[in-house]
Amino acid sequence: SEEGLSLAEVPGDNTTSVSQALELALSVQDAVNLLNEREQLQGTRELIFVTHSRTRYVIRYFKAFAQRVTLVLVVPPGKTYRAHTNRIIRAIKNISKL
Asked: Would residue 6 count as lying in a domain?
């Protein structure tokens, strides 16, 4: 949420805590705001960080519940995420319309 509160959490393999994921999302927020100020980069949709172990930290931004929502994913090496993420975002948007 805009207040930084978690709307939902899905437990994984516990390599990254919810607070660590939130810290990552908040630490890049100024950079995202700067990118969004530039005309040709309006509406940053996704940021991806890849570690040496090939774990991906994906930060996806979208609108729901009349506010900007930040979805943070920790994707293990060799796993796909894009189709599942798009499905989750559609479900969240549908719920927010109720």
From this structure: no
**Residue 54 region by backbone torsions, left for phi larger than 0, else alpha for psi between -120 and 50, else beta:** left
Overall domain count for the chain: 1
Please give the C-alpha separations between residue 72 and each of 30, 37, 38, 56, 88, in angstroms, as whole numbers: 16, 22, 24, 10, 12
98 residues of the chain, pLDDT tens digit each: 566 666 656 666 666 777 787 788 888 888 888 887 876 656 788 999 999 999 999 999 898 988 888 888 889 899 999 999 999 999 999 999 98
Task: Decide if 13 is inside a domain.
Answer: no
